[in-house]
């Protein structure tokens, strides 16, 4: 996973958990240092609702009913930021770089090069990830989802009518 983060955004080793307004805190991953940031109030992410609406509208299959998202954000030692967006209904984990311009911010989530399918891109162990820059381990994913459930920014967004 570390390789994937470096390739995606040139980040140093880090872990990111965005909160819905809580103060920044250290991640609970001892092997992946990083600082939790509250994405909802961060200038590079802000209110994710417009970006999530754009993501839903761009989806290949029409979204039925409310769509549930949890967003966790991280800042690395070098100041690089990333958010992980869990889209529950689509079983996706999207790496979101955000941006200070609101229009670019919305586009950056739709055009993310890292949109993982949680049914295909997750392997049982870190050893199974090997040198892959795309796969993630079940252990890593479970940690992120636990962090998001505890401290993430949650959104419920309706699909287009």
Label this structure with key terms:
two-stranded parallel sheet, about 160 residues, Lipoprotein, alpha+beta, disordered N terminus, signal
Short description:
The chain is 28% helix and 25% strand. By secondary structure, it is of the alpha+beta class. It is globular, with a radius of gyration of 15 Å.
Written account of the structure:
It comes from Sphingomonas rustica. The protein is of the alpha+beta class. The chain has one domain (2-155). 28% of the residues lie in helices and 25% in strands. It has helices at residues 2-9, 49-58, 102-110, 126-129, 138-151, and strands at 25-26, 35-37, 66-75, 81-87, 92-96, 115-117, 122-123, 136-137, 153-158. The strands form two sheets. Strands 1, 2, 3, 4, 5, 6 and 9 form a seven-stranded antiparallel sheet that branches. A two-stranded parallel sheet has the order 7-8. Strand 7 (122-123), helix 4 and strand 8 (136-137) form a beta-alpha-beta unit. Helix 2 runs parallel beside helix 3 (102-110). The longest helix is centred in the C-terminal third of the chain and has 14 residues, at 138-151. The protein is globular, with a radius of gyration of 15 Å.
């Amino acid at each position: 996973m570390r390789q994937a983060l470096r390739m995606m955004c040139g980040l140093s080793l880090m872990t990111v958990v965005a909160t819905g307004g809580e103060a920044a805190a250290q991640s609970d991953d001892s092997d992946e240092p990083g600082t939790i940031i509250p994405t909802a109030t961060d200038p590079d992410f802000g209110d994710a609702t417009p970006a999530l609406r754009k993501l839903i509208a761009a989806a290949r299959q029409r979204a039925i009913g409310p769509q549930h998202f949890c967003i966790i954000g991280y800042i690395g030692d070098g100041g690089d930021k990333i958010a992980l967006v869990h889209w529950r209904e689509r079983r996706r984990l999207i790496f979101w770089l955000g941006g200070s311009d609101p229009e670019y911010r919305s586009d950056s989530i739709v055009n993310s090069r890292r949109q993982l399918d949680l049914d295909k891109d997750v392997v049982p162990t870190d050893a199974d990830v090997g040198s892959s820059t795309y796969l993630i381990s079940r252990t890593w994913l479970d940690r992120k989802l636990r962090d998001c459930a505890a401290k993430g920014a949650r959104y419920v967004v309706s699909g287009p009518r």
